[in-house]
Amino acid sequence: MRLLAFGLLGLALAITPSHRGFAQEWPNRPVTMIVPFPAGAAVDTLARAVAHALSEDFGKQFIVDNRAGAGGNLGGTAAAKSAADGYTWLFGTPAPIALNKLMYKGLAYDSERDFTPVILVAKSPMIIAATSGFPAKTLPELIVYARQNPGKVNVGHPGNGTLGHITSALIQQFAGVEMTHVPYRGSAPLITDLLSGQVDVAMDFMPTYLPLVADRKIRALAVTTSRRVAQLPDVPTVQEAGFRNFEATAWYAIVAPTGTPPDIMSKVNKAVNAFLNSDKGKAILEQNSLQGVGGSPEDLKAFIDGERDKWRPVIEAAKIAMQ
């Protein structure tokens, strides 16, 4: 009987799943990395570079799955509702990871509850750009023009609730002007309409716009960092236009559905940190005008908490609320 009991105990232990054993086997099939914006956006470009590096590192394909719409909420919901088994991740931006919770009523997921931070990949300035033929050549001139033509300036951004949307609302609030918001499903369709003159101004993540500025197809009016950026040394900051202490920085991070085994998250964190510190990773970041960050999951959690605290009063003052 004693031998039988030990045998049954051994069998039970053998068939009982454990996070450690599961993590050691991971990944044994392709892994999905959800990007909540269309292909061609700055976040998509960086996500594909990271996914390629992870595919090489782990020997299994990391597939980028673009789930665009609702300011990142469609992709955020898909990731939040996925199995917490290490085979689905969200590669996102401030909106789906931190800020949409503050703006959308009836959101299908709670970013604080349903996601566990993994790593802050990179940061990027935002740009305020205009069509080459737009009358205003600077941000102060844009404000004057908008004041003289209330509601007639069309401002495009990559989706309701995105940092571009919030930045636009904040500038209008501070300047006391009224412009028309035109939301898009990501940067790619916004750029298409900006080039064709369907919108006058875009407020969006900077990297995708740099080649267009260099080719003089569009004009950069301002950047949203506290200091001028190296890639656009002649473009003033929003602060220089009179908005004291104004700063809005885009960022890109990886989070996992809550409950994902810690060992698996640690593996991804370590691999992405290695990519950011590699010559190849640094070259990709520089090519896309991004600042690599990295660090621990705890670092990302503290950063996200700080972003919510910073933007909550801005969102409330601007009365940004969406269904």
TrEMBL record:
This is Tripartite-type tricarboxylate transporter, receptor component TctC. Keywords: Signal. The keyword Signal applies. Pfam families: TctC. CDD domains: PBP2_Bug_TTT. Belongs to the UPF0065 (bug) family. It comes from the Bacteria. InterPro entries: BUG (IPR005064), Bug_dom1 (IPR042100). Residues 1-23 form the signal peptide. The keyword Signal applies. Transmembrane segments: none annotated.
